[in-house]
Amino acid sequence: MMSDLLFYGLVTTLVLLSLLAVSLPNLLHGAIALIGSFFATAALYIMLQLEFVALSQIMLYIGGIIIFMLIIILLTSGLGQENRYMVKGRRRAAGAGVSALLLIGLLLTISQPSETLQKATLRAAPVTMDDIGFRLMATNKNGFIIPFEIISILLLVALVGAVVIARRDNGQEQES
Amino acid sequence: MDTSIWRPILYLIGFMAFAGVNAAWLGWAERKGAAHIQRRNGPKEVGPFGLWQPLADGIKLMTKQLLIPSGTDDILFRIAPILAMIPALTSMVVIPFSGNIQARSIDMSVLLIFALASIGMFAILLGGWASGNKYAVISAARVVSQSIAYEIPMLITVITIVMITGSTNLQDIALAQQGGFWHWNIFRLEGGHFVYMWIAFLIYFICSVAETNRAPFDMAEAESELVAGYMTEYGSMGFGLFMMGEYLNIVVGACMTTILFLGGWGSPFGFLPGIWWFLIKIYILIFTIIWIRWTYPRTQIYKLLNLSWKILIPFSLVNLLVTAAFIKVF
Amino acid sequence: MDSYIMIGFSVFLGAIFVGGAILTSKLLAFYTPAGQRKVQPYECSEEPIGDARIRFKVAFYIFALLFLLFDIESLLLFPCMKIFRAVVTDQAGGIGTSVLFAELFVFIFILFFGFIYAWRKGVLVWE
Questions:
Q1: Partner of B238 for a Cys bridge, out of B27, B207, B234, B263, CB 3.0 to 4.6 A?
Q2: CA B39-B279-B186 angle, 5° bins
Q3: Average pLDDT, integer, range A67-75
């Protein structure tokens, strides 16, 4: 009962904050709302007893990705203030239509019991940090060693891409 | 209600009171320390040795007008000091002061402290940006580049400790170092870690000084170039909260250094372990931080970034691999 | 989970502390009407010229990306390093020590290669 209340409270907060994050005209305010919604997500993970995932969520998404987004917002002139580029009219309607379709599809998918989903949930069941460590490092059938190494290559590619893109612009930038 | 629910709550309140008292009186300690290092007297009028100075300062701050300058981003300007204070207060909760004096022992307290610390960086970034003041905005840009640069070597050093101890619980990490200073992670004889663990300690300590924006790394405030940096437009309690948040971060940083490297509450000679050793150690560290601030001149932002990216990060990564090799060999 | 509820509660306590401080300040403060010059941003008593919100340098983008990279790396290393000792001393989890060491080495080395690449390309040069 108590945890149900907590869950619905968290979900409501999450939805409201996410709506705020996409609808506030000032992108920095949107980022604050996004921080809140990430915290709500982390709380949901803790309710599922996925503590490592929850703390990673805070560290990575709030401490890393939001900082990254903020820097991008501050890199572009004027986005930190009132946004003049809000999508309006027909494009807004089109966006709403696509989102509605996505929502319907999502609801259809999760409303009917699926065997794959169930299996995946069972497989992901209470995970301690040690479990994650062993699974990431194991070379047998249950192991995730290849994804683990591929992540590092993916990160490398991202870095190389960023270096190539940003270096081209360096000539025109002199502000601090 | 039975006592089982009130005890933890009382513990929480006690820890927060400790944090609050520290946040207030470290300001006094800093002024007094600075004064004596510079052969001055420091605060001495209010009470014996000026001990009531923080109260006077607090009253003075509280009676100031909460002014919001024109051209600020109102919401962010108000949120920022709150964001600076709450995470610092909360991270005190998971720090073990001794084997049984801890508000809450959780399995991943190391990660929780880092997660909370990353929010403090936002406060400064958003506060500086929202101020709409040129000094504050430059300070915000500096803080971001500095914090993100120093968080990496810090994390990697902590991973080294996690690898040695095999736990992410601060309580376990401290317990593994009990009984004499030769068990402390910094001098650890077992496994031959003493050869290089002091490097990890140095890296961690430098990073914790830099993460709390203390001199010689206080690029955020740099009063001779940026007035007061991100705090320029803040007065009254906004300034007070930023200030207390900064001191609290120093306390948390000292606690973390003590637990990770200096044996937590363990006594250096193997007898009488207890909370007093912990307090002695953290205050020695805090004094060292104050001492460093008033001894070394401020560095330049470029040297600061070079130190992190070109020295500390490669060293900490190599240190991690060497530790792994040592554990494998011994 | 109980512990995290307590931590949530301590955030609440912190909020009370902060809110109390701000509220007391509001109640105690002497208010004088803020004139046009009083609310002007501080600029050593010069008239502020132009917008204070300059654009950040594009180099920050790469720093942030490098940071993100190392952040992800360290988060992934946390669970892997936590079990390292158990694997080495007790052969836990049925992983060979040398295999584990090689895996970690490759992982760190690939990222370190990226770091060296960025360094060589002059990303870590400030002037």
A1: B234
A2: 95
A3: 80
**What ranges make up the beta strands (E) of chain B?**
none
- A89 Cβ contact partners less than 8 Å away, ≥ 6 residues apart: none
A16 touching chain C per CB within 8 A: no
- Chain C CB within 8 Å of residue B318 CB: no
Same domain, A71 and A42: yes
The reply to whether A73 and A100 lie within a common domain is no
Answer yes or no: do A1 and A75 share one domain. yes
Residues of A whose CB is below 8 A from B324: none
How much is the pLDDT for A176? Answer: 42
Residue A101 domain-assigned (yes or no) = yes
pLDDT at B318: 86
- Residues spanned by the domain of A157: 128-171
CA distance B234 to B6: 38
On whether residue A176 sits in a domain, the answer given is no
Q: What is the CATH number of the domain that holds A71?
A: 1.20.120.1200
pLDDT over 90 percentage in chain B: 0
Chains in touch with B (3+ beta-carbon pairs under 8 Å) read A, C
Contacts A38 to B, Cβ<8 Å: none
Task: For residue C119, give the nearest of C58, C75, C62, C70 by alpha carbon.
Answer: C62
